[in-house]
Automatic annotation (TrEMBL), chain A:
It is a peripheral membrane protein. Pfam families: ATP-synt. NCBIfam families: ATPsyn_F1gamma, PRK05621.1-2. Produces ATP from ADP in the presence of a proton gradient across the membrane. The gamma chain is believed to be important in regulating ATPase activity and the flow of protons through the CF(0) complex. Belongs to the ATPase gamma chain family. The lineage of its organism: Bacteria, Bacillati, Actinomycetota, Actinomycetes, Kitasatosporales. This is ATP synthase gamma chain. Coiled coil: none annotated. InterPro entries: ATP_synth_F1_ATPase_gsu, ATP_synth_F1_gsu, ATP_synth_F1_gsu_CS.
UniProtKB/TrEMBL annotation, chain B:
InterPro entries: ATP_synth_F1_dsu/esu (IPR001469), ATP_synth_F1_dsu/esu_N (IPR020546), ATPsynth_dsu/esu_N (IPR036771). The gene is atpC. It holds the Pfam family ATP-synt_DE_N. This is ATP synthase epsilon chain. Produces ATP from ADP in the presence of a proton gradient across the membrane. It comes from Streptomyces albus. It is a peripheral membrane protein.
């Protein structure tokens, strides 16, 4: 076998091995998307009811709750960035990080100090490499987040919001995650969680159901709000984590699908090259034999004379 | 008979939904019973059993669930019970809850003890 042909054969073998791996990863990601999507759907009733309740209290009472009112001079803002622990997901992590960078730049321009909270190894590594201060980071559950994980992430956030700004608290709470729009589309999203923007949610509510009824609060509007808002933050974080997980799996699936396609393409062109090399080898061998034979014939003819 | 629509949702799933004639739950200021036509209400729930008298399509009967904190909200004959964790009594493994209660008591883990106690209370209430 010619040296050239052997090299091609070896490369085809290695590319087909890679293709097998990427194909398997694609399948795994595809099955995980379905699961993740189902969990997003299952968490929706709770989030919807909770948002409704928060809107109802905020609208139906004149309470000046610290979590609802805008600070006159917001100085510090917490930003929660949700990335994944593992890569091989195309532009998934870099898109989320880019969205966070844009938000950070905007908040800094408004004169606010950023307090960063990060979920996922990729985001932590990005900030670590650039020596950026990170208030707290969380890893190890991004593929399959549970409500307990969301609680763990939310606890320091809620604590920071409830503290005074002078004592290291924050005035605003932002969240950056990847929204799962569909199997093909996942868009990074930046959202302000607190203080609540009631105009937006109120209008949405009014569009669907008309004005909310006047509620009777048990025990009191303040107490209900005190209890509701941490749960609201937790449920928003939980929903964001679930959507981010679904998006990550979808991004992985797409990345692995194109890797598989590329591998197929590569195998095809390598096979062509290998065939050409084999043909070249054969042609050369034939011409060598023919050349050798005619040289012998010529030599014999010479000795006969 | 008038009926109200109940949705019992936990953070990660919908636990129960259907028609009911009466819902009794424990709020932070005492037990509260909600019947159809109640005035709009929003309250904070204590950990404890929630009793739902079902009617209509869901058939006449009683559904009891263990609810670990959460909220009750009622408006337009729609009642929603929101809880981080909620379980119907037939989902509760009594033996396991008893074991958990013992364990929590020996370890002096108040959280776990409360959780297990609520489960057991709900099961007793259902009987």
């Amino acid at each position: 076998m010619g040296a050239q042909l052997r090299v091609y054969k070896r490369r085809i073998k290695s590319v087909s091995a890679t293709k097998k791996i990427t194909r398997a990863m694609e399948m795994i990601a595809a099955s995980r998307i379905i699961k993740a999507q189902r969990r997003v759907a299952a968490s929706e009733p709770y989030a919807k009811e909770l948002t409704r309740a928060v809107t109802a209290v905020a609208q139906g009472s004149d309470t000046q709750h610290p979590l609802l009112t805008e600070a006159e001079q917001p100085k510090r803002a917490a930003v929660l960035l949700i990335t994944s622990d593992r890569g091989l997901a195309g532009g998934y992590n870099s898109n989320a990080i880019k969205a966070a960078e844009e938000l950070n730049a905007r908040l800094t321009a408004e004169g606010k100090e950023i307090v960063s909270f990060i979920v996922g190894n990729k985001g932590t590594a990005y900030y670590g490499f650039r020596n950026r201060p990170v208030e707290k980071s969380f890893t190890g559950f991004t593929d399959n987040p549970t409500y307990a994980d969301a609680k763990a992430v939310s606890a320091p956030l809620i604590e920071a919001v409830q503290k005074d700004t002078a004592e290291g608290g924050v005035d605003e709470l932002h969240i950056v995650y990847t929204e799962f729009v569909s199997m093909m589309t996942q868009a990074p999203l930046t959202d302000r969680m607190l203080p609540l923007t009631l105009e937006a949610s109120g209008a949405e509510e009014a569009g669907g159901k008309g004005v909310l009824p006047l509620y009777d609060f048990e025990p009191s509007a303040e107490d209900v709000l005190d209890a509701l808002l941490p749960r609201y933050v937790e449920s928003r974080v939980y929903n964001a984590l679930l959507q981010a997980a679904a998006s990550k799996h979808a991004a992985t699936r797409r990345a692995m699908q194109s890797a598989t396609d590329n591998a197929e393409e590569l195998i095809k062109s390598l096979t062509r090259l290998a065939n050409a090399a084999r043909q070249a080898d054969i042609t050369q061998e034939i011409s060598e034999i023919v050349g050798g034979a005619s040289a012998l014939a010529d030599a014999n003819a010479g000795s006969d004379r | 008979m008038a009926e109200l629509h109940v949705e019992l949702v936990a953070a990660d799933r919908k636990v129960w939904s259907g028609q009911a004639s009466l819902v009794v739950a424990r709020t932070s200021s005492g037990d509260i019973g909600v019947m159809p036509g109640h005035q709009p209400l929003l309250g904070v729930l204590e950990s404890g059993p929630v009793t739902i008298r079902t009617t209509g399509e869901s058939g006449n009967g009683t559904v009891v669930a263990a609810v670990h904190g959460g909220f009750i909200s009622f408006a337009d004959n729609q009642l929603s019970l929101l809880a981080e964790v909620a379980e119907l009594t037939d989902e509760i493994d009594v033996e396991r809850a008893e074991r958990a209660l013992e364990e929590a008591k020996t370890k002096a883990d108040e959280e776990a003890e409360r959780r297990a106690a609520v489960r057991l209370r709900a099961v007793t209430a259902a009987r």
